[in-house]
Amino acid sequence: MNQPIRTLAMGCLVMLTAILLNLNYIQVLRASDLNSDSANARARDAECARERGPILVSGDAVARSVPSHDSLKYVRKYTQPLLYAPVTGFFSCVYGSGGMENSENSVLSGTDQRLLVNNLVSLVGNDQPKGGSVLLTINPAVQKAAYNGLRALPGRTKGAAVALNPKTGAILAMVSTPSYNPNLIGTHNASASRRAWKRLTSDPAQPMLNRATQEIYPPGSTFKLVVSAAALQHGFNPDTLVRGGYSLNLPLTTTDMHNENGGNCGGDPITLTQALVVSCNVSFASIGLHLKAPRLRHQADAFGFNDDYLDQLPLAPSRFPAHLNAPQTALSSIGQYEVAATPLQMAMVAAGVANGGAVMRPYVVQEVRSPDLNVIDRAQPQLLHQAMPVSAARELTSMMVAVVQSGTGTPAQIQGVSVAGKTGTANTSTGRAPYAWMLAFAPADNPQIAVAVLVEQTGVSRSEITGGGLAGPIAKAMMQAVIH
Questions:
Q1: What is the pLDDT, as a whole number, of residue 431?
Q2: b/e sequence 154-177, b meaning 16+ C-beta within 10 Å
Q3: What is the 3-state secondary structure (H, E, C) of 244-312?
Q4: For residues 370 and 373, what is the distance between their CA atoms, to the nearest angstrom?
Q5: At residue 125, does pLDDT exceed 60?
Q6: Element (H, E) at 377
Q7: Cα(396)–Cα(371) distance, rounded to whole angstroms?
């Protein structure tokens, strides 16, 4: 055999070996991932023809498959779709899946390796394999309180609310408004599905966006909890005297920072507790300048900023900038400049304080079950970060209780229950109404629930937009759903 033929033969052998290796890689190692990929039309059609497992809230199916009486056999149905769509997402034979329908697709569709025994039994009995079920951590009473509270605001309100069990990180509620009806996308009428998809995806209000996890906002004065946590670990206590007064000159500039409504925060100096109670911009900007940017970033990171800690739903990581000069540090200390957070992240700040400084990793799946209801996976709470010592968390809790007792958070008061909280009003762009925030947890001495409520836009005048006034009553209703 001459040299050119040998070279050609070796080349063919190499290519054949590469093809065989790639076939084995695709058919064996990547089979599960490709089958569960929502863009895989063949696998999706096969899934549409089988009974997909339910998504459960408190034992009730909020998403389930029902007979479709057409060639695809089953269609997905969502009960109370507007209430749960931000969490369940959608399943469509045209557009794939989103939300929990996507992240838990292998279980719900029955392709998960943990369901192999069930599938083999089905094949032996000549039955079509069925999907497993997913039990969520959502508390329906808290979910409804959040949804109804946001929906009751005037106009087509944009906003979000999140509730956590501070001891475990379990997500008790996750609401985003405006919401959408996934039944309209999941229909087997392809033309109707496409019309619904086009209408929803072109809506300027972005109803398919989960504002609780997918959008970051300036947290405004709620970020003063993060600054307070850092201060209490670096020489401050609740009675430490800090700068008050009407204004603070921003270093390196000729610009002065003022307090909301032009007040003087009750004097100069004032205690750290008083500064939090009245949400004094001057105080927290000066504290931030004293602590400096690296300490603030370290504290923000300890609460979960700049981290991707949720794999069950799409998440936009919250942000605290890495490099800040002095005026930027001052603005960041009051939750402005480039500081931005999801409502989930700010609920984690409240939950971390409530849990003695321990920030738990959030999760929304409590259990995964096989079609015969055997539990094949159960959530185990995990510590994400110890954001602050227990002693500092107790001090910050007492300061937050004062905010609700006599400060900006009085709308969140619950009779007979000690509530800890912090309000926020975050400015955005010129000519746009500010965002209204409320963080809270209760009971303060034995927390069962921590909440964050964001009102992004609603039909009230600019002068009426405050965190306590708009978001406070919603936070209160969410907490009452658990403790009363």
A1: 64
A2: eeebbbbbbbbbbbbbbbbbbbbb
A3: CCCEEECCCCCCEEECHHHCCCCCCCEEHHHHHHCCCHHHHHHHHHHHCHHHHHHHHHHHCCCCCCCCC
A4: 5
A5: no
A6: strand 375-378
A7: 47
Q: Up-side HSE of residue 429: CA atoms within 13 Å toward CB?
A: 2
Ranges of H-type helices in 172-271: 183-186, 190-202, 224-232
DSSP string of 330-369?
HHHTTT-TT-BB-HHHHHHHHHHHHTTTEEEPPB-EEEEE
Exposed, middle or buried by CB within 10 Å (0-12, 13-18, 19+), for 355?
Answer: buried
Nearest to 233 by CA among 306, 320, 296, 319: 296
Query: Angle at CA 477, nearest 5°, toward 343 and 316?
Result: 10
Structure tokens at 148: 């109804």
Contact indicator for 388, 229 with CB cutoff of 8 Å: yes
Residue 468 is classified by DSSP as I
Question: Is 193 labeled as catalytic in the residue annotation?
Answer: no
Tokens of 335: 């939750």
Average pLDDT over residues 431-441: 88
Of 221, 228, 286, 332, the active-site residue reads 221
| Residue 269: Cβ within 10 Å count | 17
Q: Give 17-48 pLDDT, tens digit per residue.
A: 777 777 666 665 665 555 555 455 566 566 67
Strands 133-136 and 55-57 come out as parallel
Structure tokens of 132? 């497993």
Under 8 Å CB-to-CB from 313, ≥6 apart: which residues? 87, 99, 100, 103, 210, 213, 364
Amino acid occupying residue 84 = Y
Nearest to 335 by CA among 468, 217, 246: 217
Find, among 409, 390, 393, 389, the residue nearest to 401 by Cα: 409
CB 165 within 8 A of CB 483: no
